[in-house]
Give the backbone structure.
Amino acid sequence: MRVFTATGAAVLCTVGLLAGGPAFAQQGPPPASTHPPTITSVLDTQLTIIEREFTGAAQAMPEDKYSFAPTNGEFKGVRTFAQQVKHVATVNNRFYGSILGETAPAAPDEGIGSNGPDAIQTKEQILQYLHESFAHAHKAIATINADNAVTPLANPAVPFLRTRAALAIFACTHAMDHYGQMVEYLRDNGIIPPASAQRPPANPPAKPSGE
């Protein structure tokens, strides 16, 4: 287990830095911790970054635009904005529930490729569903440590993600993938994503000479 503690943590830190780079550039790094990094803290930091960006985007879209899907190009059959948010919340519940050893829901609207329960329709309901899914995620991350991170799970959410570390890393990647799509939806409606709005300009105005 000593080999995994050193090597595994290095791999997770590398993945974390790569995944978190854009967020650092846009919003600055999360508050520094006075404790040595652990697998749990590294994974939770990445989750916190994507949670902040994703929920910010979900909140920024007006409710009357939640049914929006792009049409200027080849977008036939793509998810609406609401379905993007619900899909990620649903997958969060499945992936992180698997880490916690929970039995996957049997209903078809809770599947990995689904857009969540049909009963969840309004922006308020969807945001609540999303927030609860991220709370579920943090609960699951808190159970991951160097001793169990790469121990195969008996019933993983998907066969190729057989360990807690794999599920946690892929879940963040999955959410960031859909965040990128939601950014396009927002900009198509003249809305700057909150994470981008906080980013300093690439070419700040030059100071007047003599200063």
